Amino acid sequence: MRLLTLLSLTLLGFGSAPTLAAAKKTPEERFQHYHNKALSSAPLKLADASYRELTSAPRDYSVAVLLTAMDSRYGCQLCREFQPEWELLARSWTGGDKKGESRTVFGTLDFGDGRDIFMSLGLQTAPVLFLFPPTIGPHAVASPEPIRYDFTSGSQAAELVHSWLARHLPDRPHPPVKRPINWMRWISSLVILSGGLTASYAAWPYVLPVIQNRTVWAAVTLVCILLFTSGHMYNHIRNVPYVAGDGKGGISYFAGGFQNQYGLETQIVATMYGVLALCGINLAIKVPRMTDPRTQSVALFAWSGVLFVVYSLLLSIFRGKNQGYPYSLPPFM
Amino acid sequence: MSLGFCFQSSFSANPILLFAGFESIIHEFDPWFNFRATKYLVANGFYNFWDWFDDRTWHPLGRVTGGTLYPGLMVTSGVIYHALRALTIPVDIRNVCVLLAPGFSGLTAIAAYLLTNEMTPSPSAGLLAALFMGIAPGYISRSVAGSYDNEAIAIFLLVFTFYLWIKALKQGSMLWGALCALFYGYMVASWGGYAFITCLLPLHAFVLVCMGRYSTRLYVAYTTWYALGTLASMQIPFVGFLPVKTSEHMPALGIFGFLQLLAFLDYVRSAIPSRQFQTFLWLFAGAAFGLGLLGLVIATSAGFIAPWSGRFYSLFDTGYAKIHIPIIASVSEHQPTAWPAFFFDLNMLIWLFPVGVYLCFQQLADEHVFIVVYALFGSYFAGVMVRLMLTLTPVVCIAAAIAVSALLDTYLSVKSPKPEENQAVEGAEGKKAAKSGLKATNKPVVGVYTTWGKGMIVSALAVYLLLFVLHCTWVTSNAYSSPSVVLASRLPDGSQHIIDDYREAYQWLRQNTREDAKIMSWWDYGYQIGGMADRPTLVDNNTWNNTHIATVGKAMSSSEEVSYPIMRQHEVDYVLVVFGGLLGYSGDDINKFLWMVRIAEGIWPEEVSERAFFTPRGEYRVDGEATETMKNSLMYKMSYYNYNNLFPAGQAVDRMRGARLPEVGPTLSTLEEAFTSENWIIRIYKVKDLDNLGRDHSSAAAFERGHKKKKVTKKRGPRVLRVD
Amino acid sequence: MRSLFSLFLFLFAAVVSAISASGNRLLVILEDVAEKTNYSKFLGDLESRGFQISFEVPKSESLALFHLGERSYDHIILFPTKAKGLGPNLTPNILVDFMNAQGNILVALTSDLPTPTSLVSLLAELDIQLPADRTGLVVDHFHYDALSSPDMHDVLLLPPPSATTRPDVKDFFGAGAGRDDDIIAFARGVGAVLGSSELLTPVLRAPRTAYSYNPKEQSEVVDDLFAAGEQLALVSAFQARNSARFTLVGSAEMLQDKWFDAEVSKVGEKKAVKTFNREFAKRVSGWTFNEIGVLRVNWIEHHLDEAGATNESNPKIYRIKNDVKYTISLSEYSWTTWNPFTLPGDDALQLEFSMLSPFHRLPLTLDAAHSSDSASAYSVSFRLPDQHGIFNFLVNYKRPFLSNVEEKNTVSVRHMAHNEWPRSFVISGAWPWIAGLGVTVAGWLAFCALWMYSAPVGGKRESKKTQ
């Protein structure tokens, strides 16, 4: 039986020299070896050979390996975002389980170190998180195949991955994720806060008129209202593109369909609303306060003309969004 | 008199548009439940309604309906019904329900008129606001006849509560404050959106305090409203102790405490006139406010105060719902609003709205601050959630009315000023007014000199207003007055074709199934099945139990072998699916399917995986390339079962998704087709009983089809011996 | 009241047709109608028990099990036939439909003729396997009849089936055969292997030393053994979920007249004894055709079991934590009469009160007050769980050889109404709060009184204000 195990290990190891040497170790020894290593630096930095050795069957421990591509050449944004979370998880798990009761080893395999592994697994994307369950021992599972974590919904917090791991490793201790207290951040934010307080105290006489200025508040309010009513929150929630090509090499400013919009589109619409509102404000407030009849007539004519044209344009844009809308104004019929 | 005209116009505009197309019918989904509850109320009396245990929904859990609904709407129509009966007017409760919304839209117009009149001295503004309120599509969507929804009366209550609040604030009157609390209580009884008032009034008070406008008027109005209003709101069983326990009610409580403190300080200040002492006191007030806030945070984290409910929280952290509560994110009404929707619902009011808000800055009395605050928050919320367009509409109407009335008042006055007089006045008055707020209003109003200018502006405004009326009419008749259970389409020759599959199917259920046959469907159709087919359902639009919905989602998204035990356990008799493939109807279940998967995955991440429904290339497909999980899912099978037979061999096409379906259609063994509507929109399947001979369903179905059981002569492995 | 009325109705019906609990139209399928003389005693017994027997051959044109969707017969006996199939009127699907319509079937096989294919596939659906090539013969070199088959050893002598290992199963087939020399002769029969379906029960098993072989192909040497020993079921019973019964008798010959009267002798015993076949055939056919082992639920009643309440029968709705009483009345049919049903051995009749899963599972006890000569009532009192919902009273009693009892009565359990809680002044913990309420009211009144009577001193303040 022992012989068989050795044979299979050798076969798995593809005959490479370090693996052969390691293959003589029992799973128990392998785990101790790597666990001790991990205690000093979790997660383990793996390479081709150590990856093969660690994940070879039979094993009475579980291995969680993150296959990643940290080099900036590959431009893997998600890898770099997830890496600190992963390290945090591995550190706090290994740190919370010094005796190795959960029998779990955390490792990271970078594409630069383990090109062959990536090839043999046929991986096209990174990062990929594999959990190799034990194949022998009390928690053995039927299939030696690793379980793959789903990165579909973007970068993940360490806690989410932790709960995923905990779900797949039942009846074993799950050391919790301990986020270290970020002293630097606390100190810097305290300093900034006190600095800000001092500055505002010093600048108070200059700031106060601005704060108490009604025109400033009115402007801020109107800008906010224009932003909200032109669908800015939609852009924010749906992450719509700013502009998109029209398929003919040009740029289409307006998205087709009633329920779609682009970032630029909402800005155009907000501007038009703003112009229309400005016309309205001027006609209602400014124009009747003009004392010179001639200036007043010109302003009146100009503002109402702009209002008319822009409104007509707005209607025509809306007609483009909503096919079958029957109303329009000249000149944009 | 003109107000009466407004009332009439807004009342009569709506039902006429409705009845032009369809008969008197309840719309949408929620109204069906409200209608059913009202019938129960009228039939069984108030106390039975209060203690109503509904055993025909959420089978087999049932729903403590009396304690989990906002009873305002039903009680209102019940009262109207009994009042009319007492006046010996024989009226059907259905007609009361159908016509309640237009009736209340008339009251809303009056409330808008009153509220606007508080804002501006111009008499035309109120009338314009009432007119806008009556026809703005954003509100008409909930005020057409048949839209028997909580919002139908809630918007009136919202506007009227605001009016009473402004009145109480202006006069510092306890009477108005108490009236405000009374209507606030009515609002709480009617709609979950009451939280909008609960947050807006303290916010207004807080802004006023920050502006240094604390006054005894504010104190009296606010404390009266808060004390009485909170007591009133706690009388509703569904609300209960929430006003003192949850975060969304905490601002109101905090401001209440803060105002007490301010009142105390104000008293002390008036007693001890010392400048240093005052500074100290204000610091003290600030510190107390900060401490209170800190205490709130601690109490929340310690669990004494429940954190924000998911629906409320998702308004601020917009990504929250999608990750944590898919059931909220899945509702189409909870999607963010794109700009065409704003323009569609408000048309030209959308750009008159900022003008009106700007005009409010001109005087900026307490009530104008209210409009500004309301406008800001209303537009934020409306941008985040489509359905909150409803709370924005009143303030838009009011602000736009202020703007239009300012324009009309200026340009409609016959009197023209004389240039010489004003030139002289300018120098003197210009400096005097420089202190007051807006830069634009520093100069005095002169008036418009030219008559042609007046004429041009007035005629342009008239054109815009006419266009607005046309727009509203068009929107109402096209988008909002067609009940969603009846679809209208145009035939190639232009004539209207009514697609009535929903009612056909519900009628079939009503006439062909046992009275207690349990229908499983996605929750969207729960209220309609309960209301129109009168059959018990597993889940409905009152999404109070996420796990139960996830169970249905799991049954729909799993294979037959997994689904069947679930359906047996829940005693399901029939399964109803909506399929739009033949007609190209987009609101069908295959399009909603991913939400079912997501919601089920939230509870059973090991058994249901959204990823398995996507091809390796990340596409959501239904044709031959679809994933095995997709093809084996109950929903897919029920949707496309026998669909091939409609087409020549190998040419079956799903017109909704433009997909060519595989040549061999899916087979079903645990369900049998019971009913398919005319246009295949509704398909109903009967759940088979356990096989009489103890076989599993797939082999029983194979036997039915004439396949002989394979002989098990070839033995593999050890023979299974019988032990007993 | 209604249940009582229906009880009488049932009793009346029982008196009128005192043969089978489910009709007396019996169809017998034979290779040739003339063959019925072989079975004259068996059929005569049936006729004397009140069955109206019709005879048909399988390929007959006029043969139809259904007429306008209704069963034309209540029971069928299929004796061995020569043809490979049974014709278009007796396809396995039709036979399955017949069982789904609660018709009972008794099938007799023989090793002389290969079993018709349609029967083989019907048996396969019931999870019963026959030997390969539809032919088999059960032999036993230790328990054969020394008189009739000294060489072939194909007439097996078996003791009547005793109560099986399970104490909760009633013994219908061997009971009363107290004498040791009651022997069943199983002549030239086919043994079947039963699958693990819980609807199947062997009635008569082969002895440990028996085995089955194919006399045509395996006459020289038996290399691939189909089955042996107790795995071979000679007579087996199947009861579908709707209590339709199906019996497979491996040897048609054992129902023939010659074996009813024959005398047999065991190996090594000189004394020849009369067979038990006639009685056994009566019991097997009686069980198959619903003459014994039929359970009937006469009525079910549940009511509120609380003092002061109206306690009407079978309400649709209860409240949480109500005390309720549930009673079920059961009768068992035995040849001619309905008798009270008594539970066999240490078996228990259980009531489940369930929503999604059982909240209570309680044994029902005999309730003498509601029992009668023909029915026994079982009842239990319990308190409803503290959970509202739509619950079922469920009695699910399924035992071998007894027809299935699955009775589900749905009731709603509602929550406490607003006026069913104890009032605040009853709860001692509320007294401080009530006292606080009183103090506040009294203090407010006192303050008002004080305020009213302490008028301002006069001109001083007034003059201040005017300044």
UniProtKB/TrEMBL annotation, chain A:
It is a multi-pass membrane protein. InterPro entries: OligosaccharylTrfase_OST3/OST6 (IPR021149), Thioredoxin-like_sf (IPR036249). Residues 1-23 form the signal peptide. GO terms for biological process: protein N-linked glycosylation via asparagine. The chain crosses the membrane at residues 183-204, 216-234, 268-285, 297-318. Its main location: endoplasmic reticulum. Keywords: Endoplasmic reticulum, Membrane, Signal, Transmembrane, Transmembrane helix. It is found in: Endoplasmic reticulum membrane. SUPFAM superfamilies: Thioredoxin-like. One of its GO terms (cellular component) is oligosaccharyltransferase complex. Belongs to the OST3/OST6 family. Subunit of the oligosaccharyl transferase (OST) complex that catalyzes the initial transfer of a defined glycan (Glc(3)Man(9)GlcNAc(2) in eukaryotes) from the lipid carrier dolichol-pyrophosphate to an asparagine residue within an Asn-X-Ser/Thr consensus motif in nascent polypeptide chains, the first step in protein N-glycosylation. N-glycosylation occurs cotranslationally and the complex associates with the Sec61 complex at the channel-forming translocon complex that mediates protein translocation across the endoplasmic reticulum (ER). All subunits are required for a maximal enzyme activity. This is Oligosaccharyltransferase gamma subunit. It comes from Parathielavia appendiculata. The lineage of its organism: Eukaryota, Fungi, Dikarya, Ascomycota, Pezizomycotina.
Automatic annotation (TrEMBL), chain B:
This is Dolichyl-diphosphooligosaccharide--protein glycosyltransferase subunit STT3. It catalyses: a di-trans,poly-cis-dolichyl diphosphooligosaccharide + L-asparaginyl-[protein] = N(4)-(oligosaccharide-(1->4)-N-acetyl-beta-D-glucosaminyl-(1->4)-N-acetyl-beta-D-glucosaminyl)-L-asparaginyl-[protein] + a di-trans,poly-cis-dolichyl diphosphate + H(+). Residues 518-568 form the STT3/PglB/AglB core domain. Its main location: endoplasmic reticulum. It is found in: Endoplasmic reticulum membrane. One of its GO terms (biological process) is protein N-linked glycosylation via asparagine. Catalytic subunit of the oligosaccharyl transferase (OST) complex that catalyzes the initial transfer of a defined glycan (Glc(3)Man(9)GlcNAc(2) in eukaryotes) from the lipid carrier dolichol-pyrophosphate to an asparagine residue within an Asn-X-Ser/Thr consensus motif in nascent polypeptide chains, the first step in protein N-glycosylation. N-glycosylation occurs cotranslationally and the complex associates with the Sec61 complex at the channel-forming translocon complex that mediates protein translocation across the endoplasmic reticulum (ER). Belongs to the STT3 family. It comes from Parathielavia appendiculata. The chain crosses the membrane at residues 68-84, 96-116, 122-140, 152-168, 174-207, 219-244, 250-268, 280-306, 341-361, 368-386, 457-476. Pathway: Protein modification; protein glycosylation. Keywords: Endoplasmic reticulum, Glycoprotein, Glycosyltransferase, Magnesium, Manganese, Membrane, Metal-binding, Transferase, Transmembrane, Transmembrane helix. Residues 21-400 form the Oligosaccharyl transferase STT3 N-terminal domain. Residues 702-724 are annotated as: Disordered. Residues 706-724 have a biased composition (Basic residues). It is a multi-pass membrane protein.
From TrEMBL, chain C:
One of its GO terms (biological process) is protein N-linked glycosylation via asparagine. It is a single-pass type I membrane protein. One of its GO terms (cellular component) is oligosaccharyltransferase complex. The chain crosses the membrane at residues 430-453. The keyword Membrane applies. Residues 1-18 form the signal peptide. Residues 25-288 form the OST48 N-terminal domain. It comes from the Eukaryota. The keyword Signal applies. Keywords: Endoplasmic reticulum, Membrane, Signal, Transmembrane, Transmembrane helix. Residues 311-454 form the OST48 middle domain. It is found in: Endoplasmic reticulum membrane; Membrane. Pathway: Protein modification; protein glycosylation. Subunit of the oligosaccharyl transferase (OST) complex that catalyzes the initial transfer of a defined glycan (Glc(3)Man(9)GlcNAc(2) in eukaryotes) from the lipid carrier dolichol-pyrophosphate to an asparagine residue within an Asn-X-Ser/Thr consensus motif in nascent polypeptide chains, the first step in protein N-glycosylation. N-glycosylation occurs cotranslationally and the complex associates with the Sec61 complex at the channel-forming translocon complex that mediates protein translocation across the endoplasmic reticulum (ER). Belongs to the DDOST 48 kDa subunit family. Component of the oligosaccharyltransferase (OST) complex. This is Dolichyl-diphosphooligosaccharide--protein glycosyltransferase subunit WBP1. It comes from Parathielavia appendiculata. The lineage of its organism: Eukaryota, Fungi, Dikarya, Ascomycota, Pezizomycotina.
